[in-house]
Write a sequence for this structure.
């Protein structure tokens, strides 16, 4: 093994990962280098009035899987409208977070942009950054009706009765699916795809793989420098084990039935114990603590570890960069006993785009977004991403799944999402005024992921006390943010963070808010 | 700037000459003097404009932001007076980062200054023919981007296939890989080691510039008196370059408090804040953490820390004056 895991190869793969990080999201690749294939997308005639002069239309987002679609779509749109040149800037979130606010302040923002991570949508609307889609998408009412009931939510997509963005694709996915090196797992005697690993089996498999690797490869690898990934690990493992909780407005890990945080729950503590156990066994790839997430998953195909917990974005890059790498995809390890409890997600949609209010080409933006939200556009998204992005328009999803060749891994991932995720309550859907709490929220330092990093690095010994402290700080910060929101004129209270009728095993639909 | 200061000391002139230069030319108005030096002002103008736009203006604005509760992107800026400063005083992460910056300085600066002096003494020997080659070798990291060096060093120090760990294991100095950047006991000091290596060359050049002003006739006279190499350096070189040491140390001190690029790329302040120095703390609060950015709070931390660095810079000015005085006295003696 050591003969082919050379430092040069590691550097190459990590530089590719770093490139992905530089160009894409902190958690996923940017543009996968897919060649645009004009002709595979047919742009319909516009129902709106488009400019006839030569123009450059600017578009900024985080790249990632959606760039597979945009590359094709932009090429097709330019072919249909030769006077329109689309300048597509897929950039990392850290860049977006700076470029978009600066652009808005200078009156020169991109015509379409992804909302910076740290700017609450309500704030952007209140500040007049963005234009309502009602006025720029042709035949807006009919267009909007194609989306399933409940897709457009007050405080998320709709503000003061106007629709400012739409759920382009579903946010129903999770980031701790198990990807494994087929050869390493087979040699250790495991097949997670046919038989899901329990927590104990996961730890034992990691130990066996480390033993058989004899220092050349290890059981698991984490991007430990991206501390949020440790937080996600504990969160998802703990929730599947029964510490049911969700998050909204930036506050995570709230049991909606009581409105209390679950950091001190037995399940969260057990998930941390599992990580500590992996480390005690020596099963974690050395250096994991100084790798960021993209570095970790981009090195995984070099055979450095048997298992990694990641999201679907790793698959296209591995397939492209490492076509000979044989890997499997399975559920995250399930609890040792009892049925796994579904995890909760917020269907705020993913990959939302916003139209700059100062754009002189809002009609062009409306025309393009009109296509993306159409049945044809939604099918094209699934086709271009081979199913890794799922259409929200049901008709489109059906057509795509029946007629478009989806990646087998995408099919497996979609099945896992359907089985293991349930839509949870969202605070601003019931009370849009509560969005002010997000504006007042200050980060918890240390947060869950940072604490886990401190535990694994030996800087925190008393885990229960650390989690108790986190629970206490989270409560205090939520109270403080609510009070600050009230002071700012928002009618919001801690009761807005309680949904007593929530059943973690069922979808929380529009009727449940009544 | 550092080299300019060194050269300024080296070319110091007698006090009466300096006084002559400082005196206004008799009968010439302020306008006439500006007109005479118009080309100097013209050539300074582009740099001045750029400095005003990208250094002075942001600096002054950050002082203002320090008194606001402001995310940096909204139109509602709330004046909170000294509230940010009061919060900083109670923030243990701030003080940890603050003292960590000074720990970094106290360890890294002496090592760098002394090592650079030793190497400069060797390279300053005209009998040493490979001097120019090694000067270049030592200076190369100085002109390389901190971010690039930081990324490459993560591979160099990697516990998996990293050359440092391979060497430690192969020579039996370690029986298992050392996670230099992932261990809270080693992370900061590993970065400090890389910082010393990266900036070693510039300190060495300062020393070489200082050594140029030691009169060769003193060495020749001492040799005639039978002084050996150690005596030459102990009794001539070190006393002569001591005034420069004050300035070189202070320049290096200020440099050691500006280590953002290396720390961010090598450890991002981790693990669990173990290598979080002030600049990384400021960045984390202003841009890097989840939640609404706190530009006002981060500006307050930056201002507080900036005042500390300013104090050190004033110390540099005081040291420079003392160095000038000492050197003048030595020349007169």
């Amino acid at each position: 093994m050591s003969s082919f895991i050379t430092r040069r190869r590691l550097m190459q793969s990590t530089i590719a990962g770093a490139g992905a990080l530089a160009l894409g999201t902190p958690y996923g690749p940017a543009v996968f280098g897919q060649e645009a294939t004009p002709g595979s997308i047919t742009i319909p005639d516009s129902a709106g009035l488009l400019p006839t002069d030569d123009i450059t239309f600017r578009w900024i987002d985080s790249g990632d899987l959606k760039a597979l679609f945009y590359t094709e779509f932009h090429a097709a749109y330019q072919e249909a409208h030769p006077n329109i040149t689309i300048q597509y800037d897929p950039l990392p979130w850290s860049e977006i977070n700076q470029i978009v606010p600066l652009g808005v302040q200078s009156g020169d923002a991109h015509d379409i942009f992804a909302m910076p991570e740290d700017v609450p949508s309500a704030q952007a609307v209140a500040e007049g950054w963005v234009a309502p889609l009602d006025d720029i998408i042709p035949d807006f009412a009919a267009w909007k009706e194609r989306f399933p009931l409940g897709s457009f939510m007050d405080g998320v997509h709709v503000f003061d009765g106007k629709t400012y963005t739409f759920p382009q694709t579903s946010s129903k996915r999770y980031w701790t699916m198990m990807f494994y090196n087929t050869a390493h797992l087979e040699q250790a005697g495991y097949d997670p795809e046919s038989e899901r690993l329990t927590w104990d089996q996961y730890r034992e498999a990691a130990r066996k793989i480390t033993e058989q690797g004899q220092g050349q490869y290890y059981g698991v690898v984490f991007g430990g420098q991206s501390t949020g990934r440790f937080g996600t690990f504990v969160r998802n493992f703990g929730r599947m084990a029964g510490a049911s909780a969700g998050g909204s407005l930036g506050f995570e890990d709230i049991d909606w039935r009581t409105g209390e945080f679950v950091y001190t729950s037995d399940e969260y503590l057990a998930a941390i114990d599992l990580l500590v156990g992996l480390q005690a066994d020596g099963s974690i790839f050395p250096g994991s603590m100084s790798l960021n997430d993209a570095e970790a998953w981009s090195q995984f195909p070099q055979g450095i570890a048997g298992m990694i917990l990641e999201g679907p974005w790793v698959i296209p890059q591995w397939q492209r960069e490492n076509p000979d790498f044989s890997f499997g995809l399975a559920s995250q390890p399930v609890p040792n006993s009892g049925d796994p409890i579904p995890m909760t997600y917020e269907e705020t949609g993913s990959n939302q785009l916003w139209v700059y209010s100062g754009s002189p080409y809002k009609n062009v933006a409306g025309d393009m977004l009109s296509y993306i939200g159409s049945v044809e556009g939604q099918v094209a998204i699934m086709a271009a991403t081979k199913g890794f992005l799922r259409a929200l328009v049901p008709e489109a999803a059906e057509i795509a799944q029946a007629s478009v060749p989806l990646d087998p891994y995408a099919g497996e991932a979609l099945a896992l999402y359907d089985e293991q995720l349930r839509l949870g309550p969202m605070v601003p859907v019931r009370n849009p005024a509560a969005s002010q709490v997000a504006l007042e929220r200050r980060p918890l330092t240390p947060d869950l992921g940072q604490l886990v990093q401190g535990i694994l690095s030996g800087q925190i010994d008393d885990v229960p006390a650390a989690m108790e402290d986190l629970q206490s700080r989270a409560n205090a910060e939520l109270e403080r943010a609510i009070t600050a929101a009230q002071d700012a004129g928002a009618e919001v209270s801690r009761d807005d963070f309680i949904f007593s009728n929530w059943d973690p095993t069922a979808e929380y639909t529009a009727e449940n808010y009544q | 700037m550092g080299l300019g200061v060194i050269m300024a000391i080296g070319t110091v002139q007698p006090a009466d000459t300096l006084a002559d230069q400082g005196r206004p030319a008799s009968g010439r108005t302020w306008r006439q003097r500006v007109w005479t030096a118009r080309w100097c002002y013209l050539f300074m103008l582009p740099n001045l404009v750029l400095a005003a736009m990208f250094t002075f203006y942001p600096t002054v604005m950050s002082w203002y932001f320090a008194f606001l509760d402001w995310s940096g992107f909204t139109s509602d800026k709330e004046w909170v007076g000294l509230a940010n400063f009061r919060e900083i005083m109670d923030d243990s992460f701030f003080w940890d980062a603050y003292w960590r910056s000074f720990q970094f300085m106290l360890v890294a600066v002496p090592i760098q200054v002394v090592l650079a002096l030793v190497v400069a003494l060797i390279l300053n020997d005209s009998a040493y023919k490979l001097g120019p080659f090694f000067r270049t070798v030592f200076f190369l990291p100085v002109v390389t981007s901190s971010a690039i060096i930081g990324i490459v060093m993560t591979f160099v120090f990697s516990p998996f296939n990293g050359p440092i760990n391979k060497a430690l294991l192969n020579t039996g100095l370690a029986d298992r890989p050392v996670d230099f950047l992932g261990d809270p006991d080693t992370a900061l000091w590993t970065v400090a080691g890389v910082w010393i290596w990266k900036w070693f060359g510039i300190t060495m050049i300062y020393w070489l510039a200082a050594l140029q002003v030691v009169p060769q006739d003193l060495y020749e006279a001492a040799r005639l008196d039978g002084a050996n190499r150690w005596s030459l350096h102990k009794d001539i070189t070190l006393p002569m370059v001591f005034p420069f040491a004050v300035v070189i140390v202070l320049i290096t001190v200020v440099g050691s408090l500006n280590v953002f690029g290396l720390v961010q790329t090598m450890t991002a302040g981790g693990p669990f804040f173990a290598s979080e120095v002030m600049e990384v703390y400021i960045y984390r609060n202003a841009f890097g953490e989840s939640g609404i950015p706190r530009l006002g709070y981060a500006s307050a931390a930056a201002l507080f820390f900036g005042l500390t660095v300013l104090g050190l810079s004033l110390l540099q000015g005081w040291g420079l004056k003392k160095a000038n005085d000492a050197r003048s006295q030595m020349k007169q003696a």
In short: Residues 463-487 of chain A form the longest helix (25 residues). Chain A touches chain B through 51 residues (CB under 8 Å). Residues 1-28+173-346+415-514 of chain A form a domain with the D-Maltodextrin-Binding Protein; domain 2 fold (CATH 3.40.190.10).
